[in-house]
Amino acid sequence: MMGKLKRPKQNKLSCPKVDHSTQQEYPIFCLKYLDRNSYSLSACTKTEKAALADTLDRLSQLTWAEISKSHRHGLGYEKIAKNSIRATIPAHIQDDVTFIAFRFYSKAPIVGYREGTIFHLLWIIRTFTLYHHG
């Protein structure tokens, strides 16, 4: 007689801090959680979309270590304080997640978070209204 099978526990999606063992890996870009309303790809012009594709292509040729050493207005990034974000933060994002911004068009940022080698894009900012730019 067989025993009852137990269903595995469903874990809440977590967004762990950057694992430094992935610094020599190349980034993977994910648009799954991209804001489809105010800060979406559909709001971009053809020129902005081309610039975004070009930026992601150039970033994909660098390791995370190389990106980390680059200037924040070049192919590098800057950290964005969570309390400066003026949009709804997706529910799956935990408190310890660090937002980062890359520049893609006339210094316009794309903001998201890193999870290992994956960069999850959340917002494409064309109007500099998502967060305070100091």
User: Would you list the SSEs in sequence order as H and E?
Assistant: EHHEEEE
Give a quick account of the main beta sheet: strands, pairing sense, barrel closure: 5 strands, mixed
Termini separation comes to 68 Å
Strand tally? 5
Percentage beta strand: 15-25%
User: Percent helix among the residues?
Assistant: 10-25%
Please state the structural category: alpha+beta
| Discrete helix count | 2
- Unreliable parts: 8-16
Explain what you see:
It contains two helices and five strands; from the N terminus they run E-H-H-E-E-E-E. Strands 1-5-4-3-2 form a five-stranded mixed beta sheet. A hairpin with a 2-residue loop joins strand 4 and strand 5. It has one domain (20-124). Residues 8-16 have low confidence and may be disordered. With 134 residues, the chain is of the alpha+beta class.
Q: Which characteristics define this entry?
A:
single chain, 22% strand, 134 residues, alpha+beta
Brief summary:
Helices cover 15% and strands 22% of the residues. It is globular. It is of the alpha+beta class and 134 residues long.
